[in-house]
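Quick check before the chapter quiz. The format below is the same one you will see on the exam, so make sure you can read both the input and the output lines.
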Amino acid sequence: MYIKLDKKDKRTIWLQIVDQVIDYITNGQLSPGDPLVPTRQLAQELSISRSSVQIAYEELQSRGYVITSRRGGTRVCEIMPENNEQAEHMVPTIPSKPFLEEKKEGVDHWPEVDYEEKAEIDFRLHVPYIDPIFQKSWRRASNTAMKEENVFDWGYSSSYGLQSVREQISRYLAIERGIHVQPNQILLTLGARQTMDIIAQALLQEGDLVSVEDPGFPVAWTSMRYRNMRIEPIPVDNQGICVGQISPHTKMIFTTPSHQFPSGVLMTANRRQELIQFAQQNQTWIIEDDYDGEFRYRGGPMPSLYSQLPTNILYLLSFTKLLAPGIRLAAVIGPEEAIARMAKVQEFVCRHLPVMEQLALGQFFETGDLLKHVRRMRSIYHKRHRDIIQTLTTSGLADRFHIFGTESGLHVLLEGNEQFDEYHAVNAALKAGVGVFPLSPYCLESPRKGLLLGFAHLESSKIIEGIRRLASVLV
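Here is the expected output.
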């Protein structure tokens, strides 16, 4: 074994030795069992310190090229040879993967339209209004959360979420929604999608039947299908989900009673009682998604199902619509035992949630900025809602379509008959500079057709102009 050192080489001496010995081994010039030159001898031959050679041999041993013993010295290990001849004829492959692509459905709600044409006025769904006052208050809350006295909270925390934040949410629910729970009945999550996934893992078994509204919220059925649940689509009429069509074998029902998504229907008192009685008789879970329950413009907020049957209901609260989609925090409220099981799943999945966002949210609650924000947004959205409903009426679109969502929420539905060509309408609107959504991607088996218009992020002047342009191509 001949080692040559190069003083101009930027590598250290011991690394030069390592690389050359590895070359000898991989090229077959050193075979398994061959001894290496003793460290003292090699150091003398190279006129270097023995410690450099010892470091090199230790590195070779740690990489698995040599083995050292007191009697046998340092010898080459058995190294699996590279079969270059076989590799030349092998087709590169990757490990098999599950059929994730087949399970992805109902997620992208835009139809196939000409993306070269950008909507000047975009009635995009799921986008709240993020005003300068909110940005300033959230920045202030974040800065306060970063203060030195909070450094203890920056470590590992409970999989339930920070205790202080759950206490604030408990008070908020009591004030705004009439829901009275303890902090250990609240689990913070990273949004509706993760919440649904945790529920499936904690409370269901593979193959269980889950009933969802149709049309409805695609995350509800895609999340459950991903966990290999069977999905039962349940029609929605002008009173809400049709309870009479739910199978008694269903294990869980997903519903949006305070403002059905996407139809905008409010579940009637009789239908609520029918649903509650069904859950009691069949020992069924209900997932109550109150995604924009704070924004009702006629009378006060609708009473929650949870307050009537807390033993069977999981109540979902998302800060996506309330604050901003980028703040990936939500909460699920339910019986203590169910929440404990979900917290255990969350601990396995992600240990705990990001701390800084929780601290900022807690500060936002504590200063009263959240309640102020909700009430300010309710006033702003009320005006924009009134403007879109009035313009739909005066433009003639209310005569052409059945308008849903006239009392609450952040979007409206223009429903046509079953022969209505949604995609032609979407493309025609886009040519007029207006972006609208078709209803059908939110349907599983329902034949209902129509257009969805989100208005929360648009100023009144844009709403009015957008509806006028839409009317010019559809009426």
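If your answer matched, good. The two ends are 89 Å apart (CA to CA).
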